[in-house]
Structures are given as structure tokens and as C-alpha cells.
Write a structure and sequence with these properties.
By secondary structure, the protein is an alpha+beta fold. The protein has helices at 27-35, 54-63, 75-87, 122-131, 134-149, 157-164, 174-187, 224-234, 241-249, and strands at 7-13, 38-39, 45-48, 92-97, 104-109, 116-121, 154-155, 191-199, 205-214.
């Protein structure tokens, strides 16, 4: 099996949609399919449909929130996110030849033809999907992509809020969420950055972060107290009634 086949796609953009800024898409749910996927002899990535139910996926998703209803979205909201992945063509319901190439089976097909994407090692993607949330995955994907094409890249938390999470820069509390996600990614060794100041157009110093490196292999943290503290913050993933209505009924 080739190196790329051992990796999983982290999609960032289609020809007509910026995935990171689309709040109807939950990449954590999408990556649960990716980490369960196989590839056929003719290079089609798929998941066996048999046994892969909405409820079983939700149960797995909920584990990353310690099975806590106060941290995790409801099953009904989960189903809405799942439907969005199918509606937008990120997952297709179909049939493929299995990995032996002999038997035709019902499958969930994962198209790989994204305008912008990154490959992430399977073990790293499994770790992110099973232990973090969509905000962490979005920020990681955004900075991983920047690291491939931009040298000496600098960024702000507001930039992450708007471009990686899809929120208005003034949304209450969201900048702290971005900060917590960034802290976690740094702690597990996926992101390296330094704190700097850059002069703006008025020649005034503005605090920024300089991206040093984005890694594709995570490291286990030994600072359990710090990890638990950050984890509590990033797992506050409850969708307010107002946001729910904005996402699904407008």
C-alpha cells in the first residue's frame, strides 16, 4: 500500500464552497468516515455501509465529549450535520467492488477531488477525530495548508475565527475558543509558533503569531492537568438555539 493510501484527506475547499467557513459542515464527523475507509483496486475510497448507522457514528462522536450531553451536540443536530455532508457531495451513497475486487457491496463513497486539501497520516487523523472537535480540526487544516505555501507566515486569532471557523470576528467568546484550540494543537506537537509584534499601517506594534512549523505526527502530552483544562474549554461545542436556527432554517 502506498504512503498516500495510509493517509487521509482533510478537505478544505471545493470549487464552489469554502469548507472551513461553512458552519453546516462538521469535519470531525467527516473524518470519522475517513478513518474507517478503505480503498478499492481502482483507487475509490469508501466505507462499508453495513453496520455503519447514524446511531453508531453518533455514539463514537459522543465519546470525544466524554459522553456528556452538556458538551456534545444532540443526536438530531448530529443528523443535520451528517445530512449536510451528503447534500454537498462529500459523502455519496453507492456501490463499489470491495478491496478484493471480487464482490460488489453497498458503500459510502468518499470523493477525493477537492480544490484544496491536505493529506494527514491515518493515526493523526484518528487522534484528532476521536479526541478533539471540529474547531480544532478546522484550525489545524487551515494552518497546515498555510505552512505548505507561505514562508514566515503570521496570523492573528481573529484571522482564525473568520477564515478557519467561519464566524464573525466580533462573535462573543469565539476568539477564546480559537486560542484554546491553538494551545491544544501546540501542546500535542502539531503546531509550532512564536509570539511576535508587527507594525501596522499606522506604525503601531500589533501582536501576532509567527508560524514556525506544522507537523503531521502528534505527540502524547504528559501534562494531564493542562490537557484536561484545555480539553474542557474546546469541548464546549453546544450550539445555541439562535445558531441552530441560522444554520438550518434560513
Amino acid at each position: 500500500m502506498s504512503n498516500k493510501e495510509q493517509h487521509r484527506v482533510l478537505p478544505l475547499e471545493t470549487n464552489d464552497n469554502n469548507i472551513l467557513q461553512d458552519k453546516s459542515i462538521d469535519l470531525q464527523i467527516y473524518e470519522l468516515f475517513q478513518i474507517k475507509s478503505y480503498i478499492t483496486k481502482d483507487k475509490i475510497r469508501f466505507c462499508y455501509k453495513k453496520g455503519l448507522t447514524q446511531q453508531s457514528l453518533y455514539n463514537e462522536y459522543k465519546k470525544s465529549y466524554d459522553n456528556d450531553n452538556k458538551k456534545c451536540i444532540s443526536f438530531n443536530t448530529f443528523r443535520k450535520y451528517l445530512k449536510a455532508l451528503f447534500d454537498k457531495g462529500m459523502i455519496l451513497d453507492g456501490e463499489v467492488l470491495d478491496i478484493s475486487g471480487k464482490e460488489k457491496i453497498k458503500a459510502y463513497i468518499l470523493p477525493q477531488d477537492y480544490k484544496t486539501f491536505q493529506f494527514v497520516p491515518l493515526e493523526t487523523m484518528r487522534f484528532l477525530a476521536n479526541t478533539t472537535n471540529k474547531n480544532v480540526i478546522n484550525i489545524y487544516g487551515y494552518l497546515l495548508n498555510k505552512s505548505k505555501y507561505r514562508e514566515n507566515y503570521t496570523f492573528t486569532l481573529k484571522e482564525l475565527v473568520v477564515n478557519a471557523l467561519g464566524y464573525n470576528a466580533e462573535t462573543s467568546g469565539i476568539e477564546q475558543k480559537a486560542k484554546d484550540c491553538l494551545s491544544l494543537l501546540k501542546m500535542i506537537g502539531l503546531i509550532e509558533y512564536s509570539e511576535i509584534h508587527e507594525l501596522n499601517n499606522d506604525n503601531k506594534p500589533v501582536p501576532k503569531k509567527k508560524l514556525i512549523r506544522v507537523n503531521t505526527e502528534y505527540k502524547e502530552t504528559t501534562d494531564k492537568k493542562q490537557a484536561d483544562s484545555i480539553s474542557i474549554n474546546i469541548q464546549q461545542n453546544i450550539i445555541s438555539k439562535e445558531e441552530y436556527e441560522k444554520l438550518w432554517f434560513n
